[in-house]
Design a protein that fits this description.
Layout (H helix, E strand, L loop, with lengths): L2 H40 L3 H29 L1 H20 L4 H29 L2 H33 L3 H4 L1 H15 L14 H20 L3 H23 L7 H6 L1 H17 L1 H13 L4 H8 L1 H16 L5 H19 L8 H28 L6 H30 L10 H27 L8
Length: 461
C-alpha cells in the first residue's frame, strides 16, 4: 500500500472512531438526566431506575473481552460495524418501550452493541498509527468521549424537558445511521492480526458467567443471595485462569498480566478511577433536581462543566504522554480527581451552585490528565496481535469500574433508604447517601494514585 493510501486509512479511521466515541457516551450521559422523568412516568423506585442505567454497563462488560477477541480473529471493522447497527436498533426500541422491563431488556441489547464498539475503536486506531503519534490520536479519541459526555447532560435535559424522555433514545437513531454509512464508505481495511486462530468458546462462557455472577451479586447486596453470587463468581476466577493457561488461543493472554507490569497496573488504575467517578453524574442529577429543585435542562447545564474541561484538556494530556512518562501525568490527574471527590462530600442542601461547578471543573481536569496517558500506556505496552484484547480489557475495566461505581451508589441507597420512591420526606436520607458515596469514591481514587505511581516507566520497558 502506498503512503497516500496509509494516510487516507489513518484519517478515515480517526474520523469514524471519533464520531462513534462521541455517540456512545452521549447515549450514556443523557440517560442519567432523564431518570427522574422516567421514574415519574412509570412510578418506579430508585433501585429500578438504577437498573435502567446499570443494565447497559453490565451487558457491555460481559461481552467486551470475548467480542474483542472475535474482532482480532475475524476483523475489527466487521465487529465495529455490527456493533453500530445493534446499538442503533436498540436505541429505537428503547424509544418506543412501554414498560420498565422493556427499557432494561433493550438497554442490555444496547450494551452488546456498545461492547462491539468499545472493544474495537481504540484497537483500530492503535493498528494504523505508530507509537510516536498514538498519544495524540488517542487524546483526540478521548476528547470525543468527553464532548459526548459534555453534550449528554445538556442535550438530555433539553430533550427530556421539551420532547419527553423517549427523545433521548430516538436521537441516537439518525446519528447511528450516519455512522453506519460513513463506516462502510470510508473505512476500507479490516485489521485481523489473529486471523486463523481459534476462538475460545469455553473460556468465553466461563468468563461471562463469572463476571455476571460477581457484578449482579454486588447489585443485590446486602442480601444473602448477593453474597452467594459474589462468592460463586470469585470461585470461578481460578477456574478461568487455569483454563486460559491450558488453551492454545485464549480470549485473554494471562501472561500479559503475569509478565507485563505496566499493562496490569494501568488497567487496575483505570478500574479504580472509573469506580470512583462514574456515579458522580448519577448522584448529582438527583441532588440538583430533587434537593436543589432544578429542572432537567438546568441540571444538565451544571453537569456539563466537568466533561467540557475534560474535552479541552484530553488532547493536551494525550500529546504530553508522547513526551513525558504516562505514569507521571496519569498519577497527577488521579490525585486531582480525588481532591474533587472529597470536596463534593461537603455538599449540603444550602451549598451554592458555584461550589458544585467548581468541584466538577476540578474533576474534569483530573480525569483528562489521567485517561489519555493511561490509555496510551496500555496500548503501547502490548504487541499488535493483542490490540483487540488490550482495547477490550481497557474498556472492560472502564465498564466494570462504572458498574462498580453504580453498585456502590445503589448499595448506599439501599442501606440509607431501602426500596422507596424518592419523595420530599426522604430527602434527608438521600442527601446523607450522596455525601457518603462521595467519601467512599474519594478513598477509592486515593488508592488508585498509589497503584498508578507504581506501574513502572513505559520507555524503560
Amino acid at each position: 500500500m502506498s503512503q497516500p493510501g496509509i494516510g487516507e486509512t489513518r484519517r478515515s479511521a480517526l474520523i469514524v472512531t471519533t464520531i462513534t466515541s462521541f455517540l456512545t457516551p452521549l447515549a450514556l450521559a443523557t440517560v442519567n438526566v432523564a431518570l427522574p422523568s422516567i421514574g415519574r412516568a412509570f412510578s418506579i423506585d430508585v433501585m429500578t431506575l438504577s437498573w435502567i442505567a446499570t443494565a447497559y454497563i453490565l451487558s457491555a462488560a460481559i461481552f467486551l473481552v470475548p467480542l474483542g477477541r472475535v474482532a482480532d480473529i475475524y476483523g475489527r471493522k466487521k465487529i465495529f460495524l455490527l456493533g453500530i447497527i445493534i446499538f442503533t436498533v436498540a436505541s429505537f426500541l428503547l424509544g418506543v418501550s412501554i414498560s420498565p422491563r422493556m427499557l432494561i431488556i433493550f438497554r442490555v441489547l444496547q450494551g452488546i452493541g456498545g461492547a462491539m464498539i468499545f472493544g474495537t475503536g481504540i484497537a483500530i486506531l492503535s493498528s494504523v498509527y505508530p507509537p510516536g503519534e498514538r498519544g495524540r490520536v488517542l487524546g483526540i479519541n478521548v476528547a470525543a468521549v468527553y464532548i459526548g459526555l459534555a453534550a449528554g447532560p445538556f442535550l438530555g435535559g433539553v430533550l427530556t424537558q421539551q420532547l419527553g424522555w423517549r427523545s433521548i433514545f430516538l436521537f441516537n437513531c439518525p446519528a447511528g445511521v450516519f455512522i453506519i454509512i460513513l463506516t462502510i464508505k470510508r473505512l476500507k481495511a479490516d485489521w485481523a492480526e489473529a486471523r486463523g486462530e481459534s476462538f475460545d468458546i469455553v473460556g468465553s462462557i466461563i468468563y461471562s458467567i463469572m463476571l455476571l455472577s460477581i457484578m449482579y451479586g454486588f447489585s443485590r447486596l446486602p442480601s444473602f443471595m448477593g453474597t452467594i453470587l459474589i462468592l460463586g463468581g470469585i470461585l470461578g476466577i481460578p477456574a478461568f485462569v487455569l483454563w486460559e493457561k491450558r488453551t492454545k488461543n485464549p480470549i485473554i493472554e494471562i501472561s500479559l498480566f503475569m509478565t507485563n507490569r505496566i499493562f496490569t497496573l494501568s488497567n487496575l488504575a483505570a478500574l479504580l478511577n472509573y469506580s470512583a467517578t462514574f456515579a458522580v453524574g448519577f448522584l448529582l442529577s438527583f441532588y440538583l433536581q430533587l434537593i436543589k429543585g432544578l429542572k432537567p435542562q438546568e441540571a444538565g447545564i451544571i453537569l456539563v462543566s466537568q466533561p467540557v474541561v475534560q474535552a479541552i484538556l484530553s488532547p493536551l494530556a494525550g500529546r504530553s504522554s508522547d513526551r513525558i512518562e504516562p505514569r507521571i501525568v496519569a498519577s497527577t490527574g488521579m490525585a486531582i480527581t480525588a481532591s474533587g471527590l472529597y470536596l463534593l462530600a461537603f455538599l449540603t442542601k444550602t451549598s451554592g451552585l458555584a461550589y458544585t461547578i467548581a468541584c466538577l471543573i476540578i474533576l474534569g481536569a483530573g480525569f483528562a490528565l489521567f485517561a489519555s496517558p493511561n490509555t496510551n500506556a496500555i496500548m503501547s505496552s502490548v504487541e499488535n496481535r493483542y490490540y483487540g484484547v488490550a482495547s477490550s480489557m481497557l474498556a472492560t475495566m472502564r465498564l466494570l469500574g462504572q458498574l462498580f461505581s453504580m453498585g456502590v451508589a445503589m448499595l448506599i441507597f439501599a442501606l440509607y433508604m431501602g426500596d422507596v420512591k424518592v419523595m420530599p420526606a426522604h430527602y434527608t436520607s438521600l442527601m446523607a447517601s450522596i455525601k457518603t458515596a462521595f467519601i467512599v469514591f474519594g478513598i477509592l481514587c486515593t488508592g488508585g494514585v498509589f497503584i498508578s505511581l507504581t506501574r513502572g516507566d513505559l520507555r524503560k520497558k
